[in-house]
Structure formats: C-alpha cells, structure tokens
Amino acid sequence: MLPSISTLVLVSLNGCLALAVKDLPAAPSLSFTAGYVVYMTGEPATLRCSVSRTQTVLGYQFHKDGGKVTEGHLTPSQGIYSITSVNKGTAGSYSCTYWTLDAGETVLSRESQAIVLYVIDHLPTPVLSLEPPSSIYISGEPVTLRCVHAKVDSITEYHFFKDGADALREGRSPSDSTYRIRKATGSMEGWYSCLYRSETRGRAIRSMESPRQFFSVTAQPPAPSIALHPEYPVYITEEPVTLSCASPGLATVTGYRFYKDGREVTERSSFSQRNYFISGVTSSTAGTYSCIYWISERGRDVPALPSTLVTVVVIEPLHPPVFFLTPSNGRIEDGDNLILTCSILPNFKKIIMLFTRNGEVIRHDQSLNRTESNVRFSFRVSKGNASHEGNYSCYYIADIHGRMLTSPQSNSQQVTVEARKLLWLMLIGLAASLGLILTVFLVIILCQMLCARKGSKTEKPSSPLNEDGEIAYTALTVSTLTSTRSAPI
What we know:
With 489 residues, this protein is mainly beta. The chain has 4 domains: 6-120, Immunoglobulin-like; 127-218, Immunoglobulins (Immunoglobulin-like, Sandwich), CATH 2.60.40.10; 225-315, Immunoglobulins (Immunoglobulin-like), CATH 2.60.40; 322-421, Immunoglobulins (Immunoglobulin-like, Sandwich). It has 1 helix and 40 strands. The strands form 11 sheets. Strands 4, 6, 7, 9, 10 and 11 form a 6-stranded mixed sheet that branches. Strand 9 and strand 10 form a beta hairpin. The chain is rod-shaped and about 220 Å long.
C-alpha cells in the first residue's frame, strides 16, 4: 500500500502524547527518455524518475499497475528503469517514488503521476510490386511501383528508394502508396524498395523496408521493313497479294505480327511466319498495313518498333468499253468515212484507247487529263484496201494511281466495204455506149459489103468494043450508080 500524502506522527510533549500530521516529500516526475509512450515489440524502453535538486534521494522505487517492479534501496541513484525488450507483458501503467531523509528518518515520497507504456507489434513489412508485372520493361512504357502491405491505421507517408537513395516523387502526396513512371528509360533502371510510416499516440512509427525489386529497362529492337508482293499502287478485286516482314538485326526473332488499320490481323497459329498472304483482295481487305517482330529477353517477348505503313488500294475490275460504228450496220460504200467510237464510263485522267481489226491494233489514242467520257476518231476506207473489212473492236489502258491496267475487249462489229452505186451506173452507161457505137459501126460495114455485092452484079461479062474496036469504061460510086459510055476517039 502506497503512503498517503501525509503521515500521522505521535509526539510526546511534557509526558503527554500529541498527534501531529507531517507532509510527505514532493512527488517526483516520471517520463520515457525516448519521448514517446508507444513501443514496438522488442524495442528497449527507459523510464526516468526525476526529483527536485533540493531533495536528498536515497533510492528510487518503480511501480507498474500498482505493484513494485524495483526495490528502492537497490535502484541506482540516477532514477533509471530500463526495459531491454518490451513485449505485451511489459505494457502497462508505470509510476515511481523515491526515498529521502527527513529529521534523520527514511521517508518515502509521494507517488509520481502515472504514465502508460503501450506496446504494439511491428508494422507489417511492405512488398514492392511493379504494375504491370514483368521481368523487363521497354523504353517508353508506363510503370507503377506500389508499396503494398496489410491494413494499417493512420499512415502518414510512404518512402521509395532507388539503389538505397531516396527516390523523389514530384507532385505526389506523401500518403500516396504509388511511385509512377510515365515513360521508362535506361537511366531509371536499378534496385527499388519502399517503406511507410504510421503515427500512433504521437509517435511516428516506421515500417521495415520492403525487399528490393530490380527494375530492368531495355530499348525496343529496330523497326522491320514491310513489302508487298507483287507491289502495285492498286489491286483489282480477287488479285492475290503477300505482305512480307523482314527484321534488320541479327537477333533471333521469335514471331511476327501484322496489323491492318492499327488492329492485329495475324492468327495466333501463324505468328512464326514472316509472310501474311491474302488469297484474293476485296474491299474489306483494303487498308493500311504494318508489321512488327519480337525477340525474347529475360522471359518476355519484346516487340520491335513498328514498320512503316503500306497501303492496299482495291478497285473493281475495269469494265469493257462500249464500241459502236457509224454507220451502225457496218456497211459502207467505197470512199466513205467509217467512224469508230469507243466509250468508257469511268473518268480516268490518263488513258490509252486502242482500236483493233481482226485482233490487231490499228490505232491508239493517248489522252491526258481528259474530262469527256468518249474517245472518237474516223478514217477513210477504200475498196482498194481489202484489209479494211473485218471485225472491229476496242479496249483501253488506264493509269490508276500509277498502275497501267488493261480493260477487257469491247464487243466486236463486222465492217463490209461496198462499191459505190454511181460507179456501177457509169460503168453500165459506158458499156451501153460502147455497145451502141460498135453496133453502128457493124451496121455501116455490113451496108458497105451489101452495096459492094450489088454493084458487082450489074457489070457486063466483057467490055464491049465500039465501032472502032475500043473498050468502053463505067464509073461506080457508093452514093450514085450511072453508066456512061465514052465517045469514040
């Protein structure tokens, strides 16, 4: 039982007993030398019992929860009580008193104000996690380091360390449990750890430092090259095309991936193939393509920088042109114009129009920046050139984004060259005239022959002699027949 604040003293005065009350020495003050009342299991704790300098102290006595924990005369005069390793059993309310001399007698002082020793377990040791988890990170990737631990009240701050030095966090609250790396770089590579602090009853308690984690950073492999086979600026629907991805380095490539308009199109079963084959292009396969390859480093697939972009433009097959003749039936007279017309529906800026006869090109027209849809030309066909007769058609070659594409052949039409009707009439007239002239000539000759025969019949058998014995002469003309006898000489 601790003494009260005063003591009853029997005093003998003149043979009479008198009762007197005497105050006890002033109470000391008790404190923890560390300045805090909360200790973690295993930590040392020291209590100091302080007395006014005017008092002569013979010894100190410490109490816990109303019981003695020391013997006053044995306690060192400095008034120290040390606990080498606190535990749940050493927690409790502590106080102290001291012994002093008063009128030659040993007197125990009043009891100090009690103080409480709180004992708590150590704060849970945190674990540093890297998100997303990986054995290695690629330059430019965002990474979050998180200090993870069991639930603890009154956490005041977190500390992160890189290679043992404090890693400063700009713009982050001290109570934020994360350390964010927006873009990983090679200079950020190193060993990282963390700890946290919690405040309990005025004491800032520090956790153990987490196990260290190595943050490894690697640069992306160089970009591959991508190529189209065959390489055209445009492709016609259903044409096949192959995209090939070639890595520039000597590192062992573990796979390839192809992307269309930013979305992966490679099937998982074909990751090992450096070629992506399209058996027949369509409007759905048209787009912008790229590729990457990746290598294995520390158990992670590290993708290379993406290749440049190649574009697959798909168009419908060219339509055949519309071909027609003037005249439309293909029959022309010798010397007339035959007009061949080839019409195309699309408006191409550059085309070459070709006209054929019996499958052979007879003319081609090149057009640059043409806005009209028809290409027409004419030439004179003569009967004398029999090759002008035959089957005529046309087709065109169009420049589409730099690729020269040939259209299907147009419909064909037969051309026949006929002699002009006026010529026939002239020939008939000439023949008739010649026939008439020949007839007249024959009639004249016939008449002369007949007249000659008739004259021969009127002559005498012999020339008569005149009286003088001479021969008489007769004159014959075609137009007049007379007989004259000459006068005798």
